[in-house]
Amino acid sequence: MKRRGFQVNKKKVQRLIQKLQLQVNAFTKKSRKYNSYKGTVGKIARNLIHRRFNTTVPHQKITTDTTEFKYFEADKAGILCQKKRYLDPFMDMYNREILSYSRLIN
């Protein structure tokens, strides 16, 4: 409408769309918030550290975390595809040294 020289409020346009029943129902705003909770899946490990991350004994407390990296890569046809890589470091809490890590490609 702006390109054709008309100055119209977006609420007016919305009222006209509803009156003419031109509104698309498939792309309306979701009525509920996304929730990724799947219930109790698997076994929950006991909390043995209780937020006491420091230790005086090497190899007593070893922690790990999985980090996901997303990136885009062009395939042979030149089309961009989203790829993922995962990094799993294992860290000794005695001196914060990375003992080992694994890289997973998806």
In short:
It contains 1 helix and 4 strands.
Task: Report on this structure.
Strand 3 (80-92) and strand 4 (97-105) form a beta hairpin. This protein has 106 residues and is mainly beta. The longest helix has 10 residues, at 10-19. The protein is elongated. It has one helix and four strands; from the N terminus they run H-E-E-E-E. The two termini are 46 Å apart. Strands 1, 2, 3 and 4 form a four-stranded antiparallel β-sheet that branches. It comes from Enterococcus moraviensis ATCC BAA-383. This is HTH-like domain-containing protein.
Mean pLDDT, all residues: 86
SSE topology string: HEEEE
Strand content range: 25-35%
Radius of gyration: 26 Å
**What shape does the CA trace take?**
elongated
Distance between the termini: 46 Å
Helix content: under 10%
Total of DSSP H or I helical runs spanning 4+ residues = 1
Q: How many beta-strand segments?
A: 4
Low-confidence stretches: none
Biggest β-sheet, characterized? Answer: 4 strands, antiparallel
Topology:
Elements: H1 10-19, E1 62-64, E2 67-74, E3 80-92, E4 97-105
Antiparallel strand pairs: 1-3, 2-3, 3-4
